[in-house]
Design a protein that fits this description.
The protein is α/β, with parallel strands linked by helices. It has a domain at 2-191 and 226-253 and 291-312: Rossmann fold. Helix content is 43%, strand content 18%. The protein is built from twelve helices and 14 strands. It has helices at residues 12-24, 64-73, 88-93, 95-117, 158-177, 199-208, 228-241, 258-272, 300-306, 314-327, 329-336, 339-351; strands at residues 2-7, 28-34, 54-58, 78-81, 118-119, 122-123, 128-134, 181-186, 188-190, 213-216, 222-227, 247-250, 255-257, 282-285. The strands form four sheets. It has a seven-stranded parallel sheet, with helices on both faces. A three-stranded mixed sheet has the order 9-11-13. It has a two-stranded antiparallel ribbon with strand order 5-6. Helix 1 (12-24) packs across helix 7 (228-241). The longest helix has 23 residues, at 95-117. The mean pLDDT is 90.
Length: 353
């Protein structure tokens, strides 16, 4: 039984990854440590709580005693660090939390993994530390060009700066200690279980409830959208097949403007849930500080090295995603009754909406 220590997997991408891995493999055991902050939701993994291969630990990745205890009790083969504070608006309001989790938490995981994996100046065979990162570490693109793995790191928000710092530290552990590590940098994910402060579920919830939908600036910011299960498949490939030290970009090859995404969701909700929903719900608000204009991913390296490519077109993936939100409105309502609702109520008030 291969043992995995996964972090932050009560969130969006991590919970999808656990579902994917438990379906694909029978000979694995997963330990999920999550602090259950605002975006962590145990309901994302309700259906596997009785699976004896899955273990949940409530805790902070920065807690040295807890993480050391887990390593002492379990000979982990893999560590995959999904845990991160990830919302740009929140990072602008409170950067310190992002430094604590995204940087210090990562260092703690690296140090303890090194402690248990490094024997007589050599790392045990079959070990791997995989850092899940973001294309936001590269900064912003103009109208042309794509981010590749050699693009200089140029973060523009406290969130992306904290993720950049973590990436550089992970690379340093490879360069300094020869620790077996990889880094993946993905474009914007979408799919099931995404926390409703993110663009697609936020627009869906507001549209079905006939609530104003805030759009930053003119809404012409461009993002590359990646279906979350395609991302999970890429992570699995990198973990098991990539050479130590390699970094891989993972993109969906689906660039869309934010305003196009909003209008698509309004159209879906109008046709399938709330007929009176229309574009009048869109409210343009002052643009975010340091808002990157465009992200675009060159994923040719992972295709060449590992044979990965995005299997799900945006046209297919977005309908699957919106159908899931439509069929799981109890999940959406439960999430939006807590911290999320309070946060966005204040944001609307601050923006004069």
């Amino acid at each position: 039984m291969k043992k995995y220590l996964l972090t932050g997997c009560c969130g969006f991408i991590g919970s999808n990854f656990i579902h994917y891995m438990l379906k694909k493999y029978t000979d694995i055991e997963i330990y999920n440590i999550d602090a259950l902050t605002y975006a962590g939701n145990l309901a994302n993994l309700n259906d596997i709580t009785k699976d004896t291969r899955y273990h949940f630990i409530k805790g902070d990745i920065g807690n040295k005693k807890l993480v050391d205890k887990l390593f002492n009790e379990n000979d982990f083969d893999y560590v995959i660090n999904f845990a991160a504070e990830s919302h740009v608006d929140r990072s602008i309001k409170n950067p310190e939390i992002f430094v604590k989790t995204n940087i210090m938490g990562t260092v703690n995981l690296l140090n303890i993994a090194k402690k248990y994996w490094l024997i007589d100046k050599k790392f045990k065979k079959g070990k791997k530390f995989l850092q899940i990162s973001t294309d936001e570490v590269y900064g912003s693109l103009g109208q042309t060009g794509l981010f590749n793995e050699n693009t200089p790191l140029n973060p523009h928000s406290p969130y992306s700066a904290s993720k950049t710092s973590a990436d550089v530290l992970v690379s340093a552990y490879f360069d300094t200690y020869k620790m077996p590590v990889n880094i993946t940098r993905c474009s914007n994910n979408y799919g099931e279980y995404q926390f409703p402060e993110k663009l697609i579920p936020l627009c869906f919830n507001n549209a079905k409830n006939l609530t104003n939908i805030p759009v930053y600036g003119d809404g012409n910011q461009i993002r590359d959208w990646l279906y979350v299960i395609d991302h999970c498949k890429a992570i699995d490939l990198v973990l098991h097949n990539a050479q130590d030290g390699e970094i891989y970009n993972i993109g969906g090859n689906n660039e869309r403007t934010n305003i196009c995404i909003v209008q698509l969701i309004i159209d879906y909700v109008q046709k399938n849930i709330t007929p009176s929903c229309n574009d009048n719900l869109i409210k343009h608000v002052q643009d975010r500080l340091g808002h990157d204009k465009r992200y675009g991913i060159d994923a040719s390296k992972i295709k060449k090295d590992l044979g990965w490519f995005p299997e799900t077109t945006f046209e297919t993936g977005i309908i699957k995603t919106l159908n899931w939100y439509k069929d799981n409105q109890d999940w959406c309502n439960h999430i939006t009754s807590g911290d999320y609702a309070k946060y966005y109520k204040k944001m609307y008030e601050d923006k004069g909406i």
